[in-house]
Amino acid sequence: MRNSKPISAAQFLVVVSVASAAMSLAWTHAPAYALGALSGSQGTPLNTQGQAPSADEMRQRTDALIANQHRDDQALEQYQRVEHQVDRTGGANGRVLEDRTYRIIPTGAGNQKILLVENGKRVDPTAYFQQMRTLEDTLRTLSNPDDPKGKAALAKREKRGREQAEFVDAAKDAYIPKWLGISIVSGHTCDVFELDPNPSFKPHSILQDAFSHAIAKVWVDRESNQLVRGEARVISDVSFGGGILGKLYKGGMVTMDQAEVAPGIWLPTRYQYDFSGRKFLFSFEEHQVIDVSRYRRVGPPREALLIVQDELASGKPFVEDP
Q1: Which domain holds residue 31?
Q2: Contact at 8 Å (CB) between 11 and 178?
Q3: Residue 100 domain-assigned (yes or no)
Q4: pLDDT for 85-95, tens place per residue?
């Protein structure tokens, strides 16, 4: 049964969560942006007596999900949001190491993080506006089609976008899905799938090789073919540079929730990372939860620049919790 079905709609979880989050966390020892899902199994219990999707339906839904995810990924590059990031030590009652809230604004060549609150204390308005003026300069550069620095930065971002799209598409062959049943999550009727690495998959890059090191469980909305929740777990150590540069240890988890933030656009609302590994000779652990809210479309750099300039002219700082 599982080998007869094409890839399920849920492959995206591993596409971005394992390869982007796991690889990035191990490589840079810094938070990464990824698909995953809320840890734990919230929602109604699985109904294993429901009707499993047919092979034809799976093919259609897979194509729809991939198209949706490409569109969501593109949309994310034009939406500002607020991220509350909490880093803790490991364990059930981990101690808070850092508690920060950022305003994340896309620049066309990435994202700029504007610190709003640190460990419960709001950033001084002078420091806030200094960050915004730096953002204004960046957006002005990227809005100018004749600026060499801007053109180079945008070209690099476009290259990364193409690579990510290829990476998403590669997941079709990287995993074998197994339908587990139906569950209600956040008011959505979802098919629940388990994804296991496909032993016949041949990776074409170092990042694609990460597929073989993780398994996943995902909840896919039946009506919209969008990812509602997912969990990815690293099942074998991931080495870098033959283990000389570093290693991500078995047992790491990436989790995430998604929701519809605009008609037809689903974006992450919560991430959770739990990893341990080694960078060169130094061990590290990463235990972070990111809650995402207040999505607002700011558009490409030229449009975002006007929004930032209007805010600077008003002299009123952004409030993260209106």
Answers
A1: 9-314
A2: no
A3: yes
A4: 999 988 778 89
